[in-house]
Amino acid sequence: MLLTINIFQSFLIGICIGSFLNVVIYRLPVGLSIIKPRSFCPKCKNKIPWSSNIPLLSFLFQKGKCSFCNSKISFQYPLIEIITGVLFIIFSFSSSYFYSFTLFVPFENLFNWTFLSILIVISFIDIEHFWIPQSLINFGYVTGLINLLFVEFFKNELFNESILLKGISGSIGAYIIFEFLRFASKLYFKKEALGKGDSKLVSMLGLWLGPVGVVLGIGIAYVIAAIFLLFAFKAKKIKKGSIIPFAPFLSCGGLLVWLFGNYSLVNLIYSLQL
Fold this sequence. Notes:
Mean pLDDT: 85
Number of strands: 0
Order of helices and strands: HHHHHHHHH
Structural class: mainly alpha
Radius of gyration: 20 Å
């Protein structure tokens, strides 16, 4: 019973946060404040009352239309709310590497959900605009550093290794390696194959995941991207030379590492090789 209540609470918090993430995804690329003004219809610009701004329910009751101008509301809004709600439940049971050594974890979900929310916003903005906002990367750095300081302070006394140093070294190392890959791919393909924003995103992931985690995350990202491109080419959904946003793949890789933990994934990879 208690588990059911916790799952419902996680989903409820998730869809509410997802509603806010929709605001960030819409406003950041067009240079609007994510705080003011209050939510409004992108078509008629009328401010949306609280009764028409209830996550999921308002979309269903209004049949996916604005209550003022009757224009269709993008299905992306309830989709992101559902995705965030479901992922908030899933990541309530994550086995992230950095939390393996802490004795005090009441705020664990706060960091889980923050990391998840940042990557959701980055992914959807990159899909639509081929751009990763620096403000989101900066926010990821700040919250990631707070996470490291928190875990460093409350880590198990039997574990002497510095988690803070691991995170910082992972961030710096990941940026250098990915910048090298970006430069090498530019020389090989005679054009930009990876964006500078991807290097910054990888660096931010390194801060959260550590050296081993970020390497695993990048590897998983390339595997997912390869599978996606294979099916997309066969289905003729994309053409050769098309620009493909890479942030969603990097986000998926990073989140899978955060969800299952470094050791679980390393053991899985090792067992598959035997």
